[in-house]
Amino acid sequence: MAKLSFMAPNSLFKLKLKAPKNKVSDRRVIWLVLPTFVVLTTLFVGGFVFGILQSLGYFSVIADGDDKISLDAYFAAFQNETVRAGIILTFRVAILSTVLSTFFALAISLMISRTKRFQSTLIAKVKDKKSHKVESIQ
């Protein structure tokens, strides 16, 4: 595959397309991670689906012999003002924390990628921590 390099006038962005050097190791990593991913995904999705079916009354723990799906428990819960207030508060906290963490992560990533001084400080701190770890091991 041909190598392509493009330099923008302000030299902030570089586009380089190269053929991957070691495809075998990439595939090997995927195969090493795949069993763990499949097991965790199966357990999470299976537990989630089972919980939803239980909440709808299909696999009831205190079964009365009827395996019918109903939303009566949900309607009763949403009639309570405290439950509705709790759900609204939960969504407010989730949305606010997501927006704030996205904002801070974007700001920090832009600082790292565009500021040479910040990059050199970060690299110096990482090298300093690595040297302390090596000294403590010896």
Molecular structure report:
The protein has 138 residues and is mainly α. It folds into two domains: 1-70, no CATH class; 80-138. The protein contains four helices and two strands, in the order E-E-H-H-H-H. It has helices at 23-55, 72-79, 81-114, 116-137, and strands at residues 4-7, 14-17. A two-stranded antiparallel sheet has the order 1-2. Helix 3 crosses helix 4 (116-137). The longest helix has 34 residues, at 81-114. It is flat, with a radius of gyration of 26 Å. The relative contact order is 0.04. The model has no long low-confidence stretch (mean pLDDT 78).
Q: List the helices and strands in order.
A: EEHHHH
Please state the overall shape, judged from the principal axes of the Cα atoms.
Answer: flat
The major pleated sheet works out as: 2 strands, antiparallel
Distance between the termini: 46 Å
Number of helices: 4
Instruction: Provide the spatial order of strands within the biggest beta sheet.
Output: 1-2
Radius of gyration: 26 Å
Provide the structure class. mainly alpha
Number of domains: 2
Sheet-strand content, in percent, reads 5-15%
Number of strands: 2
* Helical content class: over 70%
